[in-house]
Structures are given as structure tokens and as C-alpha cells.
């Protein structure tokens, strides 16, 4: 497999930036000036919503199973997910990369192919960034900018005591996707003749390697004229995010175990790994779904939506955070969270 390898030094820093960014076009009316000057210019009359997320090799991703194109897509998507969680519309991204000399021009081009796919998918303009050498693997840090009017902005802090708790999509799949990838990597490392067995796990792989930000839901909520009272995206696991909404809003929550949306493949794979599927849904992380509260007056508008699940309700802060189990018990929710800081790297 003699693939062409062009050293980054052959192009130089400016040549590389030109190579990576020349095919990007800017489409947003708020982008006044994109890549190529000392700074970009964005002109907005609405509130600007700004967020950053950094992905570090060995901490947040493992290139032995993460294709660079997927990584590029994911780096943008996780930032767009944060913009979505503010009920804002994303418009621009800035991409900073640290590259070790292990990376060829071809590899970085793959990364940018994924970035471009995501920019197209979420209609955002790449307006700038920074390119540096790294001694410890790949670092990719993205800043996303979005906008929303005053009345559209949704914070974590607005949930009321009688609000309904909603979650989009399904939960736990990304975590199990990671477990499958880790297992197959171990198998491969102990015997490189073994081919990884990934058939049947496609959905889990996709959820882990190429998560989507739920901008579709943000547009639908606008169509339904629903402004959630509070919202957060699920990066660290449902339990942890329920705590964030509750503590920042000054309310407690009751979540019904039998209402948690869990895909069949997630159930089956959890069983295979001898993990409780509910635990995966509560603490798995990296689902990038939206968790939000609505006031009861919006119930009728949302109750039949195929991809929005009503999983519980807010309650007095003194009632705390409870899981109503399938067995009919009320147990305190444990927020283990999915903490990258605890992972070895
Ligand atoms: P300066 O030295 O003034 O910071 P640079 O040479 O770093 O400028 O960058 C030149 C232009 O290319 C700027 O518009 C910058 O935003 C953009 N840029 C640099 N690196 C990247 C990158 N990795 N992705 C996208 N744009 C980039
Ligand atoms: Mg610079």
C-alpha cells in the first residue's frame, strides 16, 4: 500500500493553509471577510453565540480507528451541537490545528475533507484558524459562532418546576460504539492477523465516529413555535446533563426509565458486554442529542413527534433527581459522567 506521502515541509505553512482552505466558499451573509487576512470579519445584529471545543489525540480520539475525515466532521459537529443547545443558528467556524511531523499533506487534506462536509451540512463558513507544529500528536480546536434573537436564546437555567423533560434521538449508542472499537483494537493488537469484527455494529460505529448535531430539531422547534425553557446537548451522558439543567435552573427532575429512548442494537450490544443498557443511556456520553424542557402548554405540539421523547418532568429542587425504574422504584440518579480527564492518555 504505497500511498503518496507529501511532507508538509514541501508546501510550507502558507502553502498548506492555501491548499486546505482554497476550496472553501463563504455563504453566510454575516461573513464579511473569511480566510486570508490577519483576522476575519463577521457582521451581526443579533446576539452572537460563541463556543469552543478542543479534541486531543489520545484523550478524545484514537487514530487507530478514527478515520481523519470523520474526525474533521466530528470536530465541527460537536461545536455546532453546542450552538444548537443555545437554540441558535450556526454561521461561522474557526479551526486551529496542531500537527506532528507524522502527518502528511494527504492526511491533513482528509481531515479538511471532513471539515468541509460538516461545513456544508450545517451551512457554516470556515473563516480562519491557526496552524502549528505539535510534538504530541494531533490537536484540533474549533470555535463556532452562531446567532439568535433575544427571545430565541435558550440557557440551561430556565426550567420551571412543572416543565416536561424531553430528549431527542436515542441514547447510549456512541458509548457502546467506543466499547466495540476498543475491544477490536485489543484483539488486533494481540494478533494482527485477526480482522476486526464490526458487522452488525454499524449504527454504533456511526454514532461514535460521526455524530450529527441536531440542527434539524432546532429548525423543527422553530416551525412548531416552541422555545424550550432550558436546553443542553448531551456530551457527558444524560444523568450529568439532567444535573446541569436542574442545578442551574433551581429544580429537581424525575426521569422514567421506561421512557428512555434506546435503540435495539444498543440493547443487544449492552447485553453482550454485560452492561445495563439503562446505565449506558444515563452515563454513556457523546450522544450529542438535545435535552430540553418545555412548558406544559407546549405539550400538544410535541407529543407525537417521532424523534422527541418525553422522558420525565421537573420538580421541586427539594425532591432532587430521581429515576423511576421499570420495577416501580424511585432511586436517586447517579451522575458518573463521561469524564475524559479520568482517561489515561
Ligand atoms: P497570522 O500569522 O496573521 O496569524 P496565519 O498565517 O496564521 O496568519 O493565517 C493566514 C490566514 O489563514 C488567516 O486568515 C488564518 O485565519 C487562516 N488560517 C490559518 N490556519 C488555518 C487553518 N488551520 N484553517 C483555516 N484557516 C486557517
Ligand atoms: Mg497565525
From TrEMBL:
CDD domains: ThiL (cd02194). InterPro entries: PurM-like_C_sf, PurM-like_N, PurM-like_N_sf, ThiL-like. Residues 36-147 form the PurM-like N-terminal domain. Mg(2+) 4 binds at residues 38, 51, 82. It comes from the Bacteria. Keywords: ATP-binding, Kinase, Magnesium, Metal-binding, Nucleotide-binding, Thiamine biosynthesis, Transferase. Mg(2+) 3 binds at residues 38, 82, 233. Substrate binds at residues 60, 286, 338. It catalyses: thiamine phosphate + ATP = thiamine diphosphate + ADP. GO terms for molecular function: ATP binding; magnesium ion binding; thiamine-phosphate kinase activity. ATP binds at residues 112, 129-130, 156, 235. Mg(2+) 1 binds at residues 52-53, 130. Pathway: Cofactor biosynthesis; thiamine diphosphate biosynthesis; thiamine diphosphate from thiamine phosphate: step 1/1. SUPFAM superfamilies: PurM C-terminal domain-like, PurM N-terminal domain-like. Mg(2+) 2 binds at residues 53, 82. Pfam families: AIRS. Coiled coil: none annotated. Its EC number is 2.7.4.16. Belongs to the thiamine-monophosphate kinase family. This is Thiamine-monophosphate kinase. The gene is thiL.
